[in-house]
Amino acid sequence: MNVKITIMGCGSAYGVPLIGGNWGKCDPNNPKNRRLCPSILVENDDGKFIVDMGPDIRQQAEKYNIQLLDGLFLTHPHSDHIGGMGHLPALMYYYQGCNLPIYADRFTRKEVERNWWYMFDPKINVEYWGDGRPYFSEIIPYYPMKIGEIDVLPFIQDHNSMDSLGIRIGNFAYCTDIRSFPEKSYGLLRDLDVFVVDCNNEFDTDKSHSYLEQSLRWAKELNAKTTYLTHLDHTMDYDTISAKLPENVHLAYDGLILECD
Ligand SMILES: [Zn+2]
Ligand SMILES: [Zn+2]
Question: pLDDT tens, 90-116?
Fold first, then answer.
């Protein structure tokens, strides 16, 4: 199953530069340092879906031609991952005669419904722009599922204050917003072709996220052929950090395309 993965955003919660133009340690002249909120697009002939819908989704959707999707997979309810869901009524313009499934666990669903109560309350006549509707489909971690016809395996990650979901598709895995792996999840990730993993900071300064030393240890232990670090904050200058990485580990950048079996 060949899939194409597009990194639509590899930034951390606040993107790079931060609001007001704060580039931190990142060189503003390197376009690879300009990072939108974390989201990926997964597609092949069998389906097309996105993982997370953060506050930058409007720009991402324009750049990567996101209209009709087979689904939306949510990893967890932090605002950099669900903050763009207010655009669903306008996105539904493209859904004539079909609905959009939102795959989420119970906790994430509850938080989305709490934030955008007016979009999901059947008593309220939301002005969706097409006749289709978004609806929730519950993710059961560790049970294989299909989005479109793409086989997907969701698994639990420890994100400190809450769990997040990782996702494996063939020999590719996307593990954003993770502090540590439960043993059961870690065991699912050996010998990947492409491993995309959280590395919010160079040093251990954010207890909800991974950092360089730990992410590199995971990449090595799991024996991934190629690893890309994502969820990069404004201290992670592309050239400075890249110079410290082993040959088969790279920083992600917005627009990066990965092909995987
Ligand atoms: Zn995040
Ligand atoms: Zn998070």
Answer: 999 999 999 999 999 999 999 999 999
Strand 39-44 relative to strand 47-51, pairing: antiparallel
Query: Which pairing describes strands 172-175 and 100-104: parallel, antiparallel, or unpaired?
Result: unpaired
Using the structure block, give the residue that is written with the tokens 């938080």: 111
Going from the Cα of 206 to the center of ligand 2, the distance in angstroms, rounded, reads: 11
Q: Which ligand is nearest to the CA of 81?
A: 1
Task: Give the number of whichever ligand sits closest to the CA of residue 207.
Answer: 2
Report CA dihedral (194, 199, 200, 205) to the nearest 10 degrees: 170
Residue 146: which domain range?
Answer: 3-260
For residue 180, what is the enclosing H or E element? Answer: none
pLDDT in tens, 33-67: 999 999 999 999 999 999 999 999 999 999 999 99
CATH number, domain containing residue 176: 3.60.15.10
Q: Which residues keep their CB under 5 angstroms from ion ligand 2?
A: 78, 177
- Per-residue DSSP letters for 103-158? EE-HHHHHHHHHHTHHHH-TTS----SSS--EEEEE--TTS-EEETTEEEEEEEEE
Predicted local distance difference test score (pLDDT) of residue 125: 86
Ligand 1 centre distance from Cα of residue 97 (Å): 33
As for how many domains the chain has, the answer is 1
* Residue pair 139/105 in contact by the 8 Å Cβ criterion: yes
Q: What average pLDDT does this structure show over 127-138?
A: 95
Work out the pLDDT band at 261, boundaries 50, 70, 90.
confident
